[in-house]
Amino acid sequence: MYNEITSNKRKSVFLVMIFIAIIIGLGYVFDRVWGTGDYSMVGMAIIFSLIMTSVSYFSGDKIALATAGAKQIVQTDNPYLYRLVENLCITVGTSVPKVYIITDPAINAFATGRDLAHASIAVTTGAIEKLTNEELEGVLAHELSHVKNYDIRFMMLVAVLVGAIAILSNIMLRSHLFRGRDNNRGGGNLGGILMIAGIVLAILSPLIAELIKLAISRKREYLADASGALLTRFPDGLANALEKIATQNQPLRTASNATAHLFIANPFGSGKKFSNMFSTHPPVEERIKRLRAMGK
């Protein structure tokens, strides 16, 4: 279990470094092809990414909760749910995050927030009604692990970097189309090669970035499964909950591509195998298999 946590953290840091390299490389190539040669596009790419990251860091949780239609509750609104969250926080030794409920029959939940002091956990009414005490506790432990491991902050930054790459690529492609080829600085065959490389990079960078985001998100789900099982000392609780999600679940009405990676299960439903290749979540069957192995 501890090896799983250590391995996922190491691989995730490496993948974020690739993100940063793509952003800088995108700015460099376009500066060489259509820029002024003073690396202004590299600086623009970095500054743009920093601005988007700052907005996400301080406001990403509020945006995610509003998008999901989550409503904050206090202890008297739902003592059962609040007590489960409170007991897990006592075990971990952290403060109780804000608790939200999403009125939806789907079985799902997610956590958000940049740190333990600004954390929130949102649970659907379907999860509260359809899961047993141990199963719901496993789901909450999974989400609390996301907060404790700073997964949420990490994934918010990754999501913003993906958006930054997509926007920068679009801006630079449009800039080239408006300018035409007269501004090609390279000249001759080298200039033509650089221009083609720049166009290809601009087209492929968003796709590469999205695939990297999916890889990070899947690794973080495995990490939270392992951490949640360690917290409750009962991996079968979360495994049973995932089995119910796999067999009984339905798409979340407020599902959004922007927040899909935050949920414990794919909010769009299971779908077909081909679509699962591009899902933000690893296969439920594999997650259950790993949890069952932890319980042996």
UniProtKB/TrEMBL annotation:
GO molecular function: metalloendopeptidase activity; zinc ion binding
Protein name: Protease HtpX homolog
Family per record: Belongs to the peptidase M48B family.
Assigned EC number: 3.4.24.-
Cofactor note: Binds 1 zinc ion per subunit.
InterPro entries reported for this sequence: HtpX_protease (IPR050083), Pept_M48_protease_HtpX (IPR022919), Peptidase_M48 (IPR001915)
Glycoprotein keyword on record: no
Segments passing through the bilayer: 12-30, 42-60, 154-173, 193-212
Biological process annotations from GO: proteolysis
Residues the record marks as active site: E143
Compartments in which it is found: Cell membrane
Chain ranges of the Peptidase M48 domain: 77-293
